[in-house]
Design goal:
Helix content is 63%, strand content 3%. It is mostly helical. The protein has two domains: 86 residues, Winged helix-like DNA-binding domain superfamily/Winged helix DNA-binding domain (Arc Repressor Mutant, subunit A), CATH 1.10.10.10; 128 residues, Four Helix Bundle (Hemerythrin (Met), subunit A). It has a two-stranded antiparallel ribbon with strand order 1-2. Strand 1 and strand 2 form a beta hairpin. The model has no long low-confidence stretch (mean pLDDT 87).
Length: 230
């Protein structure tokens, strides 16, 4: 999914990302017109052509529209392509306790239990081994918050892959981009290693038994307990 983000290299890419962050971050309000091409070009140190091409990219992402006598205007958020990898990253560029963050977690909590149930019902032997290996990496990173967070995201990805539902997998890949852009310490509070890892262990054991309902419940417990990457 990361390879679907717009390249940030070169003048063109830099302007796309700069303007995208400004729009998504609220520097230009919904319905507000952006400065004209000359003004933006002067501010960003690029030509009008570069600005114009960057605007075309932002139009394609649903962020802005160009109207005669009005210029380039920011569209309503409902028109933004919120699952576009760039738009998602821009939303969490300077993440805080925002509605965007809440919505991302709500989507994660909605789809992850279903993915766990499907993984239990559909996984093959190789995929189970990958989930078990991801659990071991998670346990090895228990005392390192950043490494643990990355390992938790990898663990989730292994489960979504085993669900054999490509749409769920792709939505999770987009969610991961948002979670990676934020910052949080999701290392368990429990000092005892076995107790700390028990929610993940319960989930993996349920998947291994092909217990769909049990896996769904275990994933929901994992998320509501605040232990999953977020």
């Amino acid at each position: 999914m990361a390879d679907r983000t717009y390249p940030a290299r070169g003048l063109h890419g830099r302007v796309v990302h700069s303007l995208g962050i400004r729009i998504v971050g609220g520097m230009y309000a919904v319905g507000e017109s952006l400065p004209n091409e000359d003004a933006l070009g002067s501010e960003l140190g690029v030509s009008r052509t570069v600005v114009r091409e960057a605007i075309k990219v932002l139009i394609g992402k649903g962020l802005v529209e160009v109207r005669p006598k009005v210029g380039t205007r920011v569209r309503a958020r409902r028109s933004w392509h919120l699952l576009d990898p760039d738009v998602l990253r821009w939303q969490f560029e300077n993440v805080a306790a925002t509605d965007d963050w809440r919505e991302l977690l709500e989507v994660q909590e909605s789809i992850s239990p279903t993915a766990a149930r499907l993984a239990a019902e559909r996984h093959d032997a190789r995929e189970l081994l990958e989930i078990q290996a991801a659990l071991r990496r998670l346990q090895a990173a228990l005392l390192e918050p950043e490494a643990f967070r990355a390992a938790s995201l990898d663990f989730n990805e292994a489960i979504f892959a085993a669900s054999h539902n490509t749409l769920l997998w792709q939505v999770n890949a987009v969610i991961r981009l948002g979670l990676e852009s934020g910052s949080s310490d999701i290392r368990p509070d429990e000092e005892d290693e076995d107790e700390a890892m028990s929610p993940w262990q319960d989930l993996v054991e349920s998947i291994g038994r092909r217990d769909g309902p049990g896996s769904e419940k275990a994933m929901r417990n994992l998320l509501t307990g605040g232990n999953a990457a977020r």
